[in-house]
Amino acid sequence: MEVSCVRVPREEGEATRRRLADADLIDEDYEIAVSDGSLYVPVADPSAVPDEFELVSREAEPRETQTMPADLLSFDPSYERLGDVVIVDEDDPERAGALADAIVESALPVKTVVNRASKVKGTERVRDWEVLAGESTEAVHREYGCEFALDLATVYFSPRLATERHRVAEQVADGERAFDMFAGVGPFVVPFAKRGATAVGVDINEDAIEYLRENARRNGVAEAVTAICGDVREVAAEYEGWADRLVMNLPHSADEFLDTAVALASDDCVVHYYDIQHEDDPYGPGERAIREAAEPEYDVTVERRHTVRSYAPHELNVCLDVRLRRAE
User: What is this structure's pTM?
Assistant: First the structure.
């Protein structure tokens, strides 16, 4: 079967394989192949592969030695992996139990299987979980060369946003001052610091801030990261005019914090503003809110309008990359 593969010289193969594995991009259903001095690594999501790699389509041999959950079930399973924790989303208890059993019996490296038991709720953005197998809801997640420890029961984290976080992180330059207003366990802050930025992360969730500090240490950037537990509106006065880059990843209510973002912005600041809106006008409400908050103090330029993913029927999760330049 023809599949998408990253092709690299054989001598670069292990480093490339490691990078793709860190980003959870390797398609484990197919064998990695060597031919004519090149290594071919099958990838699960070609659109998420960094532009520096060469993508080709070629015949790949299926892996026959691993038993996957789908091999053990009478239905097509859906699940996410977060380190050695596997997340499922099943309303039917019998189906959820069968899926958990199949995951445990499969070749997946797993210690815990959890089922979503509620939507994200409260100011700390956590959800309830039903533990189907195992005990601990703690995990260590790896993406794009970074490692994040977290506990699903006490913090918010979405592995589905790895590609988006990498898109933003690649824009960060050495020496920048970056501020994440709703930082969680640090999935923006840590890669920013690894790219040479001085980074500040604020979150109202005390557990998330403790994990952020741990993750900064895990990734060797503790000296470049400041983690603050509190309401960003109360922290802003200490960092007025400080930020060259701001992340506002709080869809549904980021607009309530735009005055704070403007106070934090330096004379030339890029804001990554996340929103969830109807597909008929996904960017307009956010852009109008930013202009209302920032003008005329700042000249506002929308540098990119970007759809992150579908959120619900007719609703999109979007990002506006906006540059604020202080007006002369």
Answer: 0.80
